[in-house]
Specification:
Blueprint lengths: L1 H13 L10 H55 L6 H24 L1 E2 L2 E2 L8 E3 L8 E3 L6 H4 L11 H46 L3 H36 L1
Antiparallel strand pairs: 1-2, 3-4
Helix pairs in contact: 2-3, 2-5
Length: 245
């Protein structure tokens, strides 16, 4: 009885119904499998969130490229006005060149965990690896001037090349947006999985403390009653023995 009471107190102190394999071998095995899945889900959540941060970094970089290209287009349209002299167009070209330098610097300096993102080197990379290895392949397009066909651009070329470059960057942003949405869906599913498996594990392993305390108090009351009864019987036996003497 003392061993049983000690075991009950240990369970109440830990809050666990299963503290060793002997408590419930099958339950322990299931609980450990669930624990492995829960840890896998937790790591998957971290992976997905990191992947989202990476895509957000690439998105911000390409948004800046798009803004610079929009300004280049404005300047190119401006230079097409016949009222401007060659000197005026040279000034406009200088501003365009400065914007192109910004774009090239942006492309070369955009990275995440040392990985360059928008220079064409980020290809077929696995993002958002889930608890069971599932993920999505992602390639981020090259946003350099060479890839956009603008490495030798001048105001005399007109807006067609700029429009084509803007279209390429916009398509790249759309691809990033689609991947981001996919990761968000994967993240939500993984969080639900983690919650459900944690609830299942809790149902197997956690102790119903209120119920256990009631049972313990009931057992203690029975033990006290047995002790009182034994004492009473001892007193009666002692009394009968006194009468015989």
């Amino acid at each position: 009885m003392k061993i049983q009471a000690y075991d009950v107190y240990s369970k109440i102190a830990s809050g666990n119904r299963i503290n060793s394999a002997s408590d419930d071998p099958a339950g322990l095995a299931i609980s450990e499998k669930l624990e492995s899945q829960i840890k896998g889900d937790q790591q998957a959540i971290q992976n997905i969130e990191s992947s989202q941060d990476l895509l957000n970094t690439a998105d911000g970089s390409l948004q800046n490229v798009l803004t610079d290209l929009g300004r280049v287009r404005e300047l190119t349209v401006q230079a097409g006005n016949g009222i401007f002299t060659d000197e005026d167009r040279a000034v406009i070209q200088n501003e365009i060149n400065s914007l192109f330098e910004n774009i090239q610097s942006n492309v070369q300096n955009t990275n995440f965990n040392t990985k360059k993102l928008v220079d064409g080197s980020f290809t077929n990379q696995q993002l958002g690896v889930g608890a069971n290895g599932q993920g999505t392949q992602m390639t981020i397009r090259d946003a350099s001037l060479e890839a956009l066909g603008l490495d030798n651009f001048s105001v005399e070329d007109g807006v067609d090349k700029i429009d084509e470059a803007i279209s390429r960057v916009t398509e790249s942003l759309s691809e990033i947006g689609a991947s981001t949405n996919g990761l968000e869906s994967n993240l939500n599913n993984t969080r639900v999985s983690e919650i459900n498996q944690a609830a299942s594990q809790s149902g197997i392993r956690d102790l119903d403390i209120a119920k256990q305390v009631i049972e313990l108090n009931k057992q203690n009351s029975l033990n006290q009653y047995k002790i009182l009864l034994q004492n009473k019987q001892a007193e009666q036996a002692e009394s009968r023995l006194g009468l015989l003497i």
